[in-house]
Every structure is written in C-alpha cells, then in structure tokens.
Amino acid sequence: MQRRSRPLSQVSDFDIRLLKLFRTVVDSGGFAAAESVLGIGRSAISQQMGDLEQRLGLRLCQRGRAGFSVTEEGAEVYRATERLLSAMESFRTEVNGLHSHLRGELNIGLTDNLVTVPHMRITHALATLKEHGPDVRIQIRMTPPSEVEKGVLDGRLHVGVVPQAGALAGLDYHPLYEERSQLYCAVGHPLFYVSDNELDDARLDAQDAIAPNFRLPAAVQAHHQRLNCTASASDREGMAFLILTGRYVGYLPDHYARQWVQQGRLRALKVATRFYDLSLATVTRRDRHAHLVLECFLEALAQTHRAEPTSQ
C-alpha cells in the first residue's frame, strides 16, 4: 500500500467507527473471530479495514493463507486508538459527572416573608441543590418584586420568586405557590374588638389603610383600591410594621400574619369577604444560557410540586 503524502488532517466520526472495528479485530485475533463480536460478515470487515487503511495511508495488518497478524505500523495505530478511545470515555465520564458534582453559584431573589409558607418548597429545593452540589454557593437577596424581576432581566439574579401580576417581556414565569391574604388590624385599633357582624363595609373602607407599591394583578389591586389608603409600603414586612402600630388596616398573607394572630396582636376583619388569593411564581430569563446549578434547582422545585399536587 502506498503511504499518504500528507498527514491525516482530522479524525471524523466515521474514522472513530473504523478504529473501533480495528481494535475489535486485533483483540479478537483476526477477521473470522471478530465476526460474532461485531455482528457483521468477514467481507464487510475486510471492506471496512481496507477503508481505514486507505484513509490512514498505512498497512495495518496482514491477512491471508498465513493467517492474521498486525504490522508494526498497525501496532502503533492500535496503541494510539486505545489512547484515543480511553480519552473519549474519560471525557464522557467527566462531563456526565458535572451533573452529579455541581459547582458554581445560584443567585436567587425572593419576595419577603416566603419562609413562613407551610410547605417550604423553596427550602426543600435549596436542600436538594446543596445535597447534589456541596460546593455550590447560594446567595439569596430579599428585595421587592420589581427589583427581583429587574435583577433576573439584567443577569444579576439567576432566578426569582415574585407575585404573578402579568409577564414582563423576556421573562418566563412558572406557578409556585398559592397564598391567601386577609385584611388585618392590630390590637389598639378601633376595630380590633368589633365583631364582623357589627362591622359594615362603609366603616371599614373609611379606615386608614396601606397600599402596596409593587405590581399586583388587577383583581387584587381592586381590594386595595376600595380602602382609604393613606400609607404605602414596598413589601409585606413594611405593611406589617404599619398594621402593628394599631393605626392602619392592611392585607397580609395569612401564613405570615399567623404568628401575631396566635399572640393576640392581630385579627382578620370580615374573613368571609375581605380576602384574595395570589399566585407566586418563579421567574427566569427566557434567553438564559445553560446553567446546571440553576437547572438542578428548578428541577428540585418541580419535584416538590409533583410531591404536593394539591398544595395551596
């Protein structure tokens, strides 16, 4: 066989398949023995070996009446093939290992006061993420919903959790929680000891109240708009501060208010009519780059959802 005048320029997938066949032939000790291993006939093996020798410009083996033997050049190609296939397997193993040995960081932005949600889905997902990636660095920022969305859009945050009030362009939203908010007042407020049966809507709507200045669905905004809002807050904690003064009424999530209700410091007003349900959602950037840490966290959240299909 005439040698190639130029070196091999690249190794294609076809070359790799031929090299694997060559390795099997050598390991089997010849074409006949390789038939059962490869599942193809001797003529097909001979044809593919000829293709490989033609592509490499080298005689790799002797075959004929004297039997099968590997040439000196064939032995060198065999050893190079072993190194190549071993390196490919190591590459595959290491890349697959990235899925089970996560590294990097997760920057997550949260609306305040989600830690009191009974089902603790975010907490469980963070625990799962840390289990899969002990070296992952988690950074949580508690900010108003508008800042969470802005942070996800500009890349400062990988993911956020916000009240779902209509999608902003460039962001994806996936429902996470349903929470109920009720209208509260604190001990010391004139309505604290007034029973719901004696409390008419006109009197309630005349009380000083607190308006949230973050985005909410129109149906939820309507509950606030009927009140006499003389104060505002950028988050639920700010609303709680003002309600606890005993001078304002305002809406709070029931899971967040529960601690003060149990202490006798807050009470819900007109519980049969003055409430609304709000969806909170995870938010991610639509055109985000592949990020294994983020994908692991989102999958962990999805698993908590599947485990609690009726969570509210």
Automatic annotation (TrEMBL):
Gene3D superfamilies: 3.40.190.290, Winged helix-like DNA-binding domain superfamily/Winged helix DNA-binding domain. One of its GO terms (molecular function) is transcription cis-regulatory region binding. Residues 14-71 form the HTH lysR-type domain. Keywords: DNA-binding, Transcription, Transcription regulation. Belongs to the LysR transcriptional regulatory family. PANTHER family: HTH-TYPE TRANSCRIPTIONAL ACTIVATOR BAUR (PTHR30126:SF98), HTH-TYPE TRANSCRIPTIONAL REGULATOR (PTHR30126). This is LysR family transcriptional regulator. It comes from Pseudomonas matsuisoli.
